[in-house]
Design brief:
396 residues, alpha/beta, seven-stranded parallel β-sheet, six-stranded parallel β-sheet, 16 helices, 13 strands
């Protein structure tokens, strides 16, 4: 089998977890693996992380960089069209060297709005992709607001399923999976649920992790992890910390900023940092750094704001260490936290309720222990091995 994996952008979980999982499982089957990505992703630490695991086993192909000028409907369609044409041209070029047996799109949403109109960019090559963040079901399932685009996106998605060479659409959203397989769409069997993944690896104790990071053992550490932006609710958690009477609370912001106006430069962060209440690790985290960040934490903050209704790999990373969460009460994250009992739910813009949740978890009482046990059980069903092997077995 010759598997071509397409992931243009080397950011976050897409390259760090999803691509690595699939590559590991494919190489284990002795498949020939290649990756198609943007030129700018070639030297990114995450791309190097993937190739370093299997030296000499992976071929990297590139396409010209494409950027979205604005985040609106017109820019989205323009971006997807340009990317579609670029991928189509690249696959034709790659096929002149060695035709892939199967093509896998790590994030189908890169081109999911144009494929239904233009058809597959891969000619007769079978393919599959993962729908990371479906939206049109949210209002009817009670986990998000209604959008004027819901019906259009629903029609486009069902049209895409009609493409014969499309074998599977993988989803990590349990609610969307139930929504769609219970529908009467004749292609619903193409939809396959894959447990989302987030896993950190290491063997050092919590004391060792804190010693490495120079964090006091008696500190109560709240972790914010990943691509750092306004939507992480950083201002809100800082405001809530100021309402807490506990003196030992420390905020650890771990990850690189993605905003043009660097969120890490806001006065609120500088204020608590100078007071010894914050630790900033604004760099790319390798596997060891990632482990120490989660292992040293007491809770993980998932109070996303600004319309984040999808899944969160950080939630499962927290679970792999047994760390409870304080999370938004909205969207899939809120649904998961409520269903599995893995932390406190808050309105991420209600500062008082956030402060109350922090103070409650600071006590490390039976509720905290139960959350820790529950999130560990959940994470055990969302491992890198399960994720990669399920996708590869469907492709096989």
């Amino acid at each position: 089998m010759k598997l071509l994996i397409i992931e243009p952008r080397a950011i976050g979980h897409h390259m760090a977890s999803y691509v690595r999982c699939i590559v590991r499982a494919a190489v284990k089957k002795n498949w020939k693996v290649s990756i198609l990505t943007f030129n700018k992703s070639l030297n990114h630490p995450l791309t190097k992380l993937v190739t370093a695991e299997r030296p000499g086993k992976i071929t990297i192909y590139t396409i010209p960089d494409i950027n979205m000028s604005n985040y609106n409907s017109v820019s989205l369609i323009k971006y997807q069209l340009l990317l579609f044409l670029s991928i189509k041209k690249a696959v034709r070029r790659i096929s002149n060297i060695e035709t892939p047996s199967f093509i896998y799109l790590v994030n189908l949403e890169h081109i999911d709005k144009v494929i239904p109109v233009l058809g597959s960019p891969f000619k007769n090559i079978p393919w599959a992709g993962m729908l990371m963040n479906p939206k049109y079901h949210r209002f009817s399932m009670g986990i998000g607001p209604k959008s004027r685009s819901d019906n259009i996106f629903k029609i486009l998605f069902k049209s895409m399923l009609l493409i014969n060479t499309l074998k599977y659409v993988f989803v990590i959203d349990e609610i969307f999976y139930q929504y769609f397989i219970n529908s009467e769409d004749r292609n619903r069997q193409k939809i396959k649920y894959i447990p989302d993944v987030g896993e950190v690896f290491g063997a050092d104790s919590k004391d060792v992790a804190r010693e490495k990071l120079k964090i006091d053992n008696d500190a109560f550490v709240i972790l914010i992890y990943g691509n750092i932006s306004k939507r992480k609710g950083i201002r809100e958690i800082i405001q809530a910390m100021k309402l807490c009477s506990e003196e030992n609370i420390v905020l650890h912001i771990a990850g690189a900023p993605v905003d043009d106006d660097n969120i890490l430069l806001i006065p609120e962060i500088k204020e608590i940092e100078s007071a010894g209440k914050a630790m900033i690790s604004s760099f790319f985290h390798n596997e060891r750094d990632e482990y120490y960040a989660f292992k040293s934490a007491d809770i993980v903050w998932l109070g996303y704001i600004g319309g984040n209704y999808g899944s969160s790999g950080v939630l499962y990373q927290a679970g792999s260490i047994g760390v409870p969460v304080i999370a938004t009460d909205r969207g899939l994250i809120g649904w998961l936290v409520n269903k599995y009992g893995i932390g406190e739910l808050v309105n991420p813009q209600d500062i008082v309720s956030i402060a109350q949740a922090i103070s409650s978890l600071c006590r490390k009482d039976l509720n905290y222990q139960l959350y820790s046990e529950n999130i560990t059980k959940l994470a055990n069903r969302h491992t890198t091995k399960i994720f990669g092997s399920m996708i590869i077995e469907f492709i096989a």
